[in-house]
Structure formats: structure tokens, C-alpha cells
């Protein structure tokens, strides 16, 4: 056995021993919401960071990178290089950042908006924003929820400055730039894609926005110029409001978990065991968002949800199970370090590809049995709504991506103004108030410099969709029927199996036959 492979074997073994307990601790903490459980998770993360701060190992990685010609070894060393590099800064500073981040995250996870002495869960707020017609009441709920921004603003700003301090100490301009490079991306390539999308979506989104304003002006009995952020039926207008006349929740009043299970079975991707291991329903104190986690990269994959039988949770469940089938189908002969998604946006694309089905008329016919008359009645509206959904999310992502980049470039600037300027530019909502509303978005604290990955995921999902339709299912690209085991096979062979064996751009080129291309998303949603 060579020196390199011996070193890598040891690394794989040791890193697995660090990561698995931290994953388990995170799972436990997000279920209980208890401070001591979050503390356990935090200690696990800090332990891993200490491990990667080892300077001798970092030198060995650099040396071996030059030495080896074996592709699998080289790939592991490249990944290790980034892991070690990310922890080469002052370990005290890194710990401080982790602690501060965890503190803020816990505040987020346990925050409940308070309206007139009554505590509201996120699910309750979503309901009110969708159904309430009284502008004053909407404003009250919206403002109550935004209080979490004020609650964390001071800590969050400190955290951002600490992150920048770390990045600068390691020779990067700021944390935004550093994060991208450590995840094998560059600001240049992402800005280029975002600009292409901005230009391609502007016209269609403006049309939609006018249509929306028309609807809301009537619904709320206010002039179009008087529409405010709380009128758009979502705390951040990140999800499109429904402006066409159909009620999807009505269709999804049955057991959505059962529907998801059957759907995946028909694609040849069994999720029964995954659901059995998962935490699926609301519990007081529990994390209110959804996620999917791969505990050991050897088959223990779970999802975290607070399921209700409605369209939102249908989409979310299809989404999280998309991650789950990706995580569950790796080439297990690969070393632990490579049994990860090619890139976070690649697994995101799988989740999105499947999540989109909750608004796919073919899916609805097949899995919830809506009748032909209903199909005819809602078909066109549904297609429009889907486009609106995607574009609304795209514009919102533009806000996040561009805001965060500017935030890290200069955290001293007037961030409240910057935030609402971005909202105006991309989401076309003309509003301003001097409050830290930007700080109420959990991603800025807990998933920094991440949002662009949703967009890249969407682009790749559209690219995969067209390939699947062309090569396997036939039908039109807007409402394909994936219920075919060949679809599962296709994804296993092209994506799941390879894990992190190749860099994301290489994987896409090699297995999809061309570069990551926004044109498929544009064709599907911007025209
Ligand atoms: Zn996801």
C-alpha cells in the first residue's frame, strides 16, 4: 500500500468518526429544540474544525496532491485541501464564529411570532398571509414575524464581521468570495448566470407582477400603488402567491406521504425505509423547516418535516425525498469522502426536479385522480402558475444573492436600505422601512452564501427534465410523467452513483453531454 493511500484510508476513517456523531446530534437537536442538544451538535462541529486546523496534515495533503496521478486519490486530496484550507485560520476565531452562528440559529428555531399575546407557528402565519383579507391584520402578522430580524440583528452583524475577518486573514477579499472558492465555484461564473437570467426573466416577471397587482388591488381593496410586502401572501415574496382560480390544497387533502411513496416506487426509487426513519410531523419546539440528512453515507438517510396534507407539503416532501434518493444510491465502493453529492446544487436539482410535480397536471391526474373536467378547467392556469412560481423564486434569489455579495463587500453600509433597494429592483415591490428586515431571513445567519445554489439547482433540474423527456418518457416538457423505472436508472447512472467523484462541472459535461446551461430553464419558465 502506498504512502498516499495509507494516509487517505486513515483520513476517511477519522473524518467519518467526527462527522457521524455531529450529524446525529444535529438531528436530535432539531427535534427537541433544546439548548443542550444544540450545544452537543456545536461541540461536534468544533471538534471537526479542530481536526481540519491541523497544519501538518494540510502540508501532507499539499505534498500528495503534487505526487499522485491516481484520479480517485487526487479527487479526495482536492476535497481535503478545501476542508483543511477552510480551517487554517485562527482556531479561536473559527470557534467564535461557530458559537455565534449556533446561538443565532437557536433563536431562529425557537422564535414564535407574537400577535396580541398569541404565539403563532410558521404554519399558522403562512395560513393567515394566504387567507386574511384585512390589510391591517396582515400588516400586524407580517411585522410580528419580522421581529426576529431585530432580535438577531446585532449578533448577526457581529457574525458577518467575524466571517470577513477570517476570510481576510486567509488572503480572501471577503467571506463571500472565500465561501464560493471553497465550494469549487467562482463569483464570476455565478454572476454571469444570474445576469443572463435577469435579462431573460425581466419581461415575463414584469407581466406577472402587473397581473398580480391587479388581483391584489381588488382582493384587498387598495390602490395598486398602495400594495405592501404583506399583501403578497408570503413573508419574503419568495413563493409566488396564487393568482389563478383553483385551489390546489383541495386536491392534496389526502395522505401526501402515501402519494410520494407510490410516486417514487414507480420511478424505481424506493423510499419506504427512508420514511420509516424520518421525523415527519409537528412537535412543540421542533425545527419548523424541512431538510434531508445523510447520517453515515452508508444508507441511513432521513428527512425532517412538519407535514400537513396540503400542496406546500406535497412539494416539500417530494423535494426532500429527492435528496434522499440521491443520497441513498451512491457507489458504495467509493471511499467515504466521495460518497457525498457532487455539489450541493446538484442534489438540489434532483430535489427540485421531483418537487415540481406537485403542480404537474399529469402527476395530479395519475396520483390524486383529479377528473378530466377539472383537468380542463385548471390546466392552463396551472401552467401559468408554475411559471409564476419559478420566476417569483428566481427574483427573490436575485435579492438574496446580490444582497449577500454586497453585505460581505461592505457590512458597514446602510443594510436596511440596501435590502429594500434590492427588493425593489428584482421583486418590484416599492417599499422601505428602517428596520433590519434582511436579518429575519435565516439563510443569512445559518446558510451563508448558499442561495445561488437553489438557482443553479433549478437550471440543472430543467436541463435534466428535458433530457429525461427526450430520452425516456416523451411527452411535453411542462408536464412529463416520470413514472418509469428507467427514470430512476437514468438518474442513478448519470448523477447519484458518482457522488463527489468528479467536480460538478466535469460531472455535468461528462454525463449530460454539455455544460450547465440556463437555456432550458429559460425555455421552460421565462417565455
Ligand atoms: Zn433541498
List the defining traits of the structure above:
single chain; 527 residues; mainly alpha; Neurolysin, domain 3; two-stranded antiparallel sheet; 66% helix; 3% strand; globular; binds zinc ion
Q: How would you sum up this structure, described in words?
A:
The protein is mainly α and 527 residues long. It has a domain at 188-272 and 308-525: Neurolysin, domain 3 (Orthogonal Bundle). It contains 22 helices and four strands. The strands form two sheets. A two-stranded antiparallel sheet has the order 1-2. It has a two-stranded antiparallel ribbon with strand order 3-4. α2 (35-52) runs antiparallel to α5 and α13 crosses α14 (344-355). The longest helix is centred in the C-terminal third of the chain and has 38 residues, at 372-409. The radius of gyration is 23 Å and the shape is globular. The mean pLDDT is 95. The structure holds zinc ion. Zinc ion is lined by residues 319, 323, 348, 351.
Describe the SSE topology:
Elements: H1 3-32, H2 35-52, H3 55-67, H4 71-86, H5 91-110, E1 113-115, E2 118-120, H6 122-131, H7 135-169, H8 175-182, H9 187-220, H10 248-251, H11 256-267, H12 272-277, E3 291-294, E4 301-304, H13 311-327, H14 344-355, H15 361-368, H16 372-409, H17 415-427, H18 442-446, H19 452-473, H20 485-494, H21 504-512, H22 519-525
Antiparallel strand pairs: 1-2, 3-4
Helix pairs in contact: 1-2, 2-5, 3-4, 5-7, 7-8, 9-16, 11-13, 13-14, 14-19, 16-17, 19-22
The structure holds zinc ion.
